[in-house]
Amino acid sequence: MSVEKRVVKKYPNRRLYDTATSSYITLGDVKQLVLDQVEIQVIDAKTKEDITRSVLLQIILEEENGGSPMFSYEVLTQFIRFYGQAMQGMMGPFLEKNLQLFSQLQQKMQEQSRAIYGDNGMFNAKMWSEFLNYQGPAMQNMMSNYLDQSTQLYLDMQTRMQEQAKQLFTGFGFPAYPGSDKKDEGKEG
């Protein structure tokens, strides 16, 4: 059963209209809806096109231009390099799964914190800030190790798939396919 999304219409004057509250909202309000885990869909009021992704990217751009950016130059250039590559279709699901795992880790840590310190949000925020100041490098190392392992598993899977494909197509003698030259050499002599 799918959850019905909250529809926000974007008008040509760039104003956003929340159909649930029958009022105009800001990009900051859309961000808050996302933070509140409200499923949204942004529709261009004139063309009826779904523009949710572009609005979400606009929010990310504003966040990146604000305080401390999440994406380094290297990450952004790698994103750009993946477009048009054979692996582009796999990059999104890979990132999505890793973000889900990271979110689950964060949620588990918050639950453990609540179990120990209760719902004192201010104390929790201060405690996590101090914890990450001291343990941040260890956490980053742990996440880096996890990503390295994920990458290695993926590369191993890719190698196995290539080997299976070679075994499957060995007898067909495709031009410029490794192994087809040996059959051709035997015919010439």
TrEMBL record:
Pfam families for the chain: PHB_acc (PF05233), PHB_acc_N (PF07879)
Domain named PHA accumulation regulator DNA-binding N-terminal: residues: 7-66
Domain of life: Bacteria
PHB accumulation regulatory domain location: 71-110, 123-162
Family annotation (NCBIfam families): PHA_reg_PhaR
Protein name per its UniProtKB record: Polyhydroxyalkanoate synthesis repressor PhaR
Species this protein is from: Crenobacter oryzisoli
Name of the coding gene: phaR
